[in-house]
Amino acid sequence: MKGPFGKFAAGVYQITYELNVQEVGRPFALFANGVLLAGTSYGENSQGVLTGHAAVTLFENDVITLQNLSGDTNLNASVSGIGVVAASIIFEQLTTA
Predict the structure, then answer these.
(1) What beta strand segments (E) does the chain contain?
(2) How confident is the model at residue 46 (pLDDT cuts 50, 70, 90)?
(3) Alpha-carbon span 84 to 91, nearest angstrom
(4) Are the C-beta atoms of residues 54 and 30 closer than 8 Å to each other?
(5) How far apart are CA 73 and CA 54, in angstroms?
(6) To which H or E segment does residue 24 belong?
């Protein structure tokens, strides 16, 4: 997954992300223009899968980043030797401004 993500039209977005992480206890959150978006901080379950989702208001040309809140972490790009998607993020526009 590569970021930052930008060039949004103003409106309310449902943002969902999923990460396959190696280390336990690594919370992630969404930021808009370097500012933490309230309600977007999530930690992974015991299986190393971290899923977060939130409805947030974005303004035109906001730059969104998904950041690890506790330092570096590695993503699992394979399971049992089979390549897998280690991260995904979906932006769904719910309303316009």
Answers:
(1) 11-20, 28-32, 35-36, 49-58, 64-68, 78-79, 82-83, 87-96
(2) low
(3) 21
(4) yes
(5) 22
(6) none
**CATH class belonging to 11-96:** mainly beta
| Nearest residue to 92 via CA among 13, 17, 37 | 13
Please write the tens of the pLDDT for every residue from 20-35: 877 777 788 999 999 9
- Distance of alpha carbon 34 from alpha carbon 20, whole angstroms: 24
Residues 50 and 28 sit within 8 Å (Cβ to Cβ): yes
Domain boundaries, the chain: 11-96
Token pair of 97 as six digits: 């401004």
- What's the Rg (C-alpha) of the chain? 14
Reported pTM:
0.80
Give, rounded to a whole angstrom, the gap between the first and last alpha carbons of the chain. Answer: 28
